[in-house]
Write a structure and sequence with these properties.
Blueprint (H helix, E strand, L loop, with lengths): L2 H8 L1 H13 L19 H27 L7 E7 L1 H14 L4 E5 L3 H9 L5 E5 L5 E4 L5 H7 L15 E3 L12 H23 L5 H26 L7 H26 L2 H16 L22 H13 L6 H29 L8
Parallel strand pairs: 1-2, 1-3, 4-5
Antiparallel strand pairs: 3-4
């Protein structure tokens, strides 16, 4: 018998075990996933208290801000255009102060045409016209029921000859939006969706590359803008104006809120969800001007209407729908600035983290 045969007989398990051993060391790749590594959840008192405090902070912030803004809304020096003689303008100002002290401020215009244009372009909420003709007040009902309710009592005020001043709505709301809230509802829906997108993109896919996450954000914003415009403009005919223009503004609003939420979560991790809900949802929607014009907000909230995505977006939508593109250019510039700054910040943080090996804040 050969030496090889003797060795095989002496070690019968050597050859039988070899395939098993080779199989045991073979690497079989599993399915690729974007899920983060499993990690233990919180336990104990911390796990009980943290969710309670988080949702209470958000809920109480909502209650506090919205009540501060709307529990007793008061107009603050709303501009009223006046095209009249000095004597008539002074008398009209006195009547305004008697009806609603500090609610209006008089702005003089050289003629009736320029005063009327001020109302149509939202530089004034109403206009008193008495330049050589019969005195009358014109206003834009598209500013909402609150402004209409302030202007309507002027019809009961007698003029110098004892006749009452006629009040005419020259820019009424569309027939599909009798309460003037459609712009607010359309914007609120996409602001909420933008916040939820920013939150879910890190929950569902925390390991997406920067490019993939931005493609996802752009896809969400465009589809959201298109769907909202179809619903608001086509299905319900609630918002008049250019379909593409309205779709574009809503797309930019959704993108700005989503990008801001992504940035907050990228920087602060789970705390960014809390910050995004307070600033983007609560503060943004309360100061948007969709429920009441910014001139009715308290002094500490009014400035936010001109810088928050919801505020500039609502004004641009109103401009497209009623007010000859008032606020459109400013709204586009500010919304693009929000998107650029937030996307740029996320890109910079991703590059820094990739080069230094810093743990991603959203994964902590």
């Amino acid at each position: 018998m050969s030496d090889t045969a003797l060795m095989r007989d002496a070690h019968p398990l050597a050859e039988e075990g070899a395939p098993q051993q080779r199989h045991r060391h073979r690497h079989v790749p599993g399915p690729q996933t974007d899920a983060p590594p499993a990690r233990p959840g919180m336990t104990g008192a911390h796990a009980v208290i943290k969710p309670v405090l988080t949702v209470l902070v958000i809920g109480l912030a909502f209650v506090s801000v919205f009540l501060a803004a709307f529990h007793t809304p008061t107009a603050h020096r709303l501009p009223v255009a006046v095209a009249a003689s000095d004597h008539s303008a002074a008398l009209f100002d006195v009547r305004l102060q008697r009806i609603a002290p500090e609610a209006f401020q008089i702005d003089r215009y050289p003629d009736e045409a320029s005063a009327r244009r001020a109302v149509e372009h939202r530089r004034a909420y109403a206009a008193f016209l008495s330049d050589g003709g019969k005195p009358r007040v014109v206003y834009a009902g598209a500013n909402g029921p609150a402004v209409s309710a302030l202007v309507a009592p002027l019809a009961a005020v007698p003029h110098g000859d004892g006749e009452k001043i006629p009040v005419v709505d020259i820019l009424p709301l569309s027939s599909g939006d009798s309460r003037g809230l459609s712009v607010f509802y359309a914007s609120f829906g996409l602001v909420l969706a933008g916040f939820l997108f920013g939150q879910m993109t890190y929950q569902v896919a925390p390991r997406l590359s920067f490019g993939q996450r931005m493609v996802s954000l752009a896809l969400f914003a465009v589809l959201g803008g298109l769907a909202t415009a179809l619903i608001a403009c086509t299905a319900f005919a609630a918002i008049p104006g250019s379909f593409l223009g309205i779709m574009g503004i809503i797309t930019l609003m959704a993108g700005a809120v989503a990008a801001a939420t992504v940035m907050l979560i990228r920087i602060f991790g789970p705390v960014g969800v809390l910050l995004g809900s307070i600033f983007m949802l609560v503060m943004g929607n309360a100061t948007s001007g969709g429920v009441l014009p910014p001139g009715f907000l308290p002094g500490w909230l009014e400035p936010l209407a001109s810088v928050m995505p919801a505020g500039v977006g609502v004004r641009a939508l109103d401009g497209l729908a009623y007010f000859h593109h008032d606020g459109l250019t400013r709204g586009i510039v500010i919304l693009l600035a929000w998107i650029a700054v937030c996307v740029g910040a996320v890109y910079l943080l991703d590059r820094i983290a990739a080069s230094t090996g810093i743990v991603h804040a959203a994964h902590r």
